[in-house]
Design brief:
alpha/beta, 10 strands, binds zinc ion, two-stranded antiparallel ribbon, 10 helices, globular, binds N-{4-[(3-aminopropyl)amino]butyl}acetamide, eight-stranded parallel β-sheet
């Protein structure tokens, strides 16, 4: 399996996130990509750089132009006032407040984000753009008839919506890739999100659309981040009615229960007639993950890859979460089992 990877991810290097009452070193840090690369290199798979010429049109279709300019410019404005610190919101809009983009940098940060775990640094925009080029280069390889390709994206993407960041995510790499398949003339594209956390950004982007089926297995938002989206009764709206499927699972879920729901998800993907699959590949479902609560074991990740392969659909794997050193082993197990099936 080919991996697409850019070392520009290193430019996004947040110092601290606000977590449960105190500032904490960022869980989502550059080292993660090294951990993942270790797993890929051990298998001797080809690693390619993103194509610098790849069209960014799908990015502009997924994200609002004003949000993208916010991402591009906010750190420079912030650093004039706070040169020693990362840009992070401390106030957000709520019910009864206006939904407006204020002039103040603090107001803008609140308007375009939804948590205090997602610092914006000097290199966040460059790294996010490199991740988008990475996923779009990988998408082009799948379009050119590769059976499976891995986009080693960092920062991750599935919590980012059309005009907001959060959950360590800025640009929604998986959504951008799905849009790229549509622009290439495909129909019945699907996103299968297996990250521990609900992919609230991806769901919100496609919620009223029938051209991208979104299916997610994740921790029940009643007990886990992102808390405000990812419930079972969220099935899509308008033309998108029936094209969003959530499987919220309780804390402690292990392979036995997980795989039952995965098989259901695969049946839905088959019934839809999926032509191209984007897998939002978080491996924070592993028992070892420091910020998550599922109990998948190393060998379960091979089963996961095997089951995804059983769909027999060209598949783009996009890296999402996973915050422990063995993250590359789990990713490699998924990809190797997919390849072998
Ligand atoms: N300080 C992904 O796995 N944790 N994102 C909440 C806020 C946020 C995880 C703590 C977890 C986001 C891509
Ligand atoms: Zn996650």
């Amino acid at each position: 399996m080919i991996t697409v990877y850019s070392e520009e991810h290193r430019l996004h290097d947040g110092r601290q996130e606000f977590h449960r009452g105190k500032m904490h070193p960022c869980f989502e840090r550059p080292e993660r990509a090294e951990w993942i690369l270790d797993g890929i290199r051990q298998r001797n798979w080809e690693i390619r750089e993103p194509d610098p010429q790849v069209s960014l049109q799908p990015l502009y279709r997924i994200h609002r132009p004003r949000y993208l300019s916010f991402l591009e410019t906010i750190y420079d404005q912030w650093s004039l006032v706070h040169p020693q610190d990362d840009a992070i919101a401390h106030v957000w809009s709520c019910r009864g407040h206006r939904q407006i983009e204020p002039e103040s940098i603090y107001g803008k940060l609140g308007y375009y984000s939804y948590d205090a775990g997602t610092p914006i640094t000097a290199g966040t925009w460059s790294a996010s753009l490199a991740a988008v080029r990475t996923v779009l280069t990988a998408q082009q390889l799948v379009h050119a008839e590769a059976r499976g390709v891995f986009a080693l994206t960092r920062p991750p993407g599935h919590h980012a919506g059309a005009d907001f960041c959060g959950g360590y995510c800025f640009c929604n790499n998986a959504a951008v890739a799905a849009e790229a398949f549509l622009l290439d003339g495909l129909e019945r594209v699907a996103v299968l999100d297996v990250d521990f956390h609900h992919g609230n950004g991806t769901q919100s982007i496609f919620y009223d659309r029938s051209d991208v089926l979104c299916i997610s297995l994740h921790a029940d938002p009643a007990e886990a981040y992102p808390y405000f989206l990812g419930y079972r009764d969220e099935t899509g709206t308008g033309p998108g009615a029936g094209f969003n499927v959530n499987y919220p699972l309780p804390t402690g879920t292990a392979w036995d229960a997980y795989s039952k729901h995965l098989l259901e998800a695969l049946a839905v993907l088959r019934a839809y007639g999926t032509t191209r699959l984007v897998v939002a590949l978080g491996v924070d479902t592993c028992q070892q993950d420091p910020i998550s609560g599922f109990s998948l074991r190393a060998d379960d990740f091979a089963r996961l890859g095997e089951l995804i392969a059983s769909l027999r659909v060209p598949t783009l794997f996009v890296m999402e979460g996973g915050y422990y050193p063995a993250v590359g082993q789990m990713v490699a197990k998924v990809l190797a089992a997919f390849d072998a099936a």
